Amino acid sequence: MSDDHDDSPIAARVRELEAVLEEKGLLDPTELDQVLEAFAHKASPANGFRVVARAWVDDGFRARLLQDANAALPELGLSMGGGLQVQRLHVVENTEDVHNVIVCTLCSCYPLSLLGPSPTWYKSPAYRSRVVSHPREVLEQFGLTLPGTTKIEVWDANAESRYMVPPRRPEGTDGLGEAELAALVTRNGLIGTAAV
Ligand code: FE
């Protein structure tokens, strides 16, 4: 499948599994490479930045995105597709009263196609357990201090469901175009560990 040197036990198991599937003729290695390459190439947080900027300038898109994100993404030429299994994306918007943050407590489920590869800390046991039990403290460790009146909602991703957080549009950005707005958004903002 690939020429990189990942020596982790999981990578070794995946290579074994791949070899068995190829041997039995159940897997075409060329096809698999093509799917993975296309996916890895397209998976970038820039996709998430574009989605948020569009939602900030277009109320209709924002409403469709919140209601059915999988159906709204193709409007920007995007999808949740990784090929084999399509995950449902839930877009959970920050407001004055509620701040959202995403996690996968079981492993590291993440909306890869919109956010790119997940950061190492997202996969760490410390983040996965602490953000659920002490979300306010964890956000403070990221430098994000929220008013005591702001409610924090923690969303736990799984094999079927992924989450993305559109941050609140910063003040004083009325004159900015969509591309300039997209440039304000950060990967951590889409996870909920930064304000924008
Ligand atoms: Fe997971």
UniProtKB/TrEMBL annotation:
Residue stretches in coiled coil: none
Residue sites binding Fe(3+) per the record: C104, C107, S108, C109
Superkingdom of origin: Bacteria
Example of a GO MF term: transition metal ion binding
UniProt keyword annotation of Signal present: no
Ranges of residues in domain Nitrile hydratase alpha/Thiocyanate hydrolase gamma: 10-194
Keywords: Iron, Metal-binding
Family: Belongs to the nitrile hydratase subunit alpha family.
Protein's UniProt name: Nitrile hydratase
Biological source species: Lentzea jiangxiensis
